[in-house]
Recover the amino acids of this structure.
């Protein structure tokens, strides 16, 4: 007997609805060595939207030599069939990236910064202070163009080179980034070392520092199997935006051990079990991830995809 959906049982103190910020097409694919054709990327994004996701980060306008997989950002944006009411944010590191994105008509961007010096240098070729200087005019330019600006705050729970990351440092860097005019932040556990108490404490510290709860999203990696527990802690703290990647695709090429984005299907299973609305059709999403796994030539790492796609007929019906 296979259950295709969890039994719904509500728990106290949780939101009625959660916004899933889907990162599979950007964070998921940026790590793939073999270049995925633009047409496949476009179909991936369109299928994610058809499965009910309403915020789908699409690509990056970073330096193509740094992330060759996403060198087709312009082409992808141009050929994408956009659905009304859907946000298609893109990642931009600097003014050059912002100009490229705005030129394609993009009006929703995400910048990224690290709490730690080592990752800042490896990911942006800048110290933390220099990265903030680089980001400031990007936020200004994007806001003047009417774009929303999310900021990823990376290495917020630990760093593979520097070890423990004090919460005060996270609050300090996040505060400076939000003061630039970012409209939301994504508290990112880049290497997946965070645990639920850490999440509770850090979200509370950020809120105490004056960052409104509704502007805080969370980005967990499942490297140590903590991602879903961390999501629950974040929801209990009042967070209502959660990042995840269809099929659990991806990681980050610039951080050791940054594998395993939280899989969207695993997240949806938990949220639907808790009676929390997501707008996502889990069956359509699983079929999308099975299709994408076929394109990449290896099975999805999502436990939910494995459980559902392995059942009779599902794999065959997943074209
Ligand atoms: P740099 O080498 O310092 O760049 O790299 P620069 O400003 O000195 O410029 C050098 C050349 O690059 C110039 O060209 C620029 O025009 C060009 P030249 O004059 O020599 O011919 N250039 C660009 N070309 C195209 N698009 C651009 C661009 N910018 C400069 N946007 C830079 C600095 C920021 C560009 C580089 O470090 C970079 O692209 N980094 C991106 C790394 C990346 O994508 N990392 C993955 C995303 S972060 C992540 O995954 C974590 C996250 O998911 C959350 C989490 O879990 O933590 C967000
Ligand atoms: Mg990630």
């Amino acid at each position: 007997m296979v259950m295709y959906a969890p039994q719904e049982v509500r728990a106290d103190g949780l939101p009625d609805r959660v916004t899933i910020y889907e990162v599979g097409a950007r964070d998921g694919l940026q790590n793939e060595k073999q270049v995925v054709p633009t047409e496949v990327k476009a179909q991936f994004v369109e299928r994610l939207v058809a499965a009910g996701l309403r915020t789908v980060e699409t690509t990056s306008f970073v330096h193509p030599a740094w992330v060759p997989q996403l060198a087709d950002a312009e082409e992808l944006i141009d050929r994408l069939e956009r659905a009304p009411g859907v946000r298609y944010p893109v990642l931009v590191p600097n003014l050059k990236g912002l100009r490229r994105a705005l030129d394609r008509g993009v009006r929703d961007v995400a910048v990224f910064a690290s709490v730690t010096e080592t990752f800042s240098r490896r990911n942006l070729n800048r110290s933390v202070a220099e990265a903030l200087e680089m980001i400031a005019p990007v936020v200004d330019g994007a806001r003047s163009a009417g774009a929303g600006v999310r900021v990823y705050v990376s290495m917020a729970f630990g760093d593979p080179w520097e070890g423990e990351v004090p919460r005060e440092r996270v609050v300090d860097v996040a505060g400076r980034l939000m003061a630039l005019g970012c409209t939301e932040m994504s508290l990112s556990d880049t290497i997946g070392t965070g645990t639920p108490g850490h999440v509770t404490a850090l979200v509370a510290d950020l809120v105490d520092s004056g960052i409104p709860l509704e502007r805080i999203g969370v980005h967990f990696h499942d490297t140590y199997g903590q991602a879903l527990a961390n999501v629950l802690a974040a929801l209990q703290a009042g967070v209502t935006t959660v990042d995840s990647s269809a099929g659990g695709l991806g990681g980050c090429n610039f951080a050791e051990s940054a594998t395993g984005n939280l899989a969207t299907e695993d997240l949806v299973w938990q949220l639907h079990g808790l009676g929390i609305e997501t707008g996502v059709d889990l069956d359509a999403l699983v079929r999308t991830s099975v299709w994408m796994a076929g394109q990449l030539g290896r099975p999805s790492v999502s436990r939910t995809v494995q459980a559902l796609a392995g059942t009779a007929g599902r794999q065959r019906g997943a074209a």
Summary: The first strand starts at residue 19 and ends at 22.
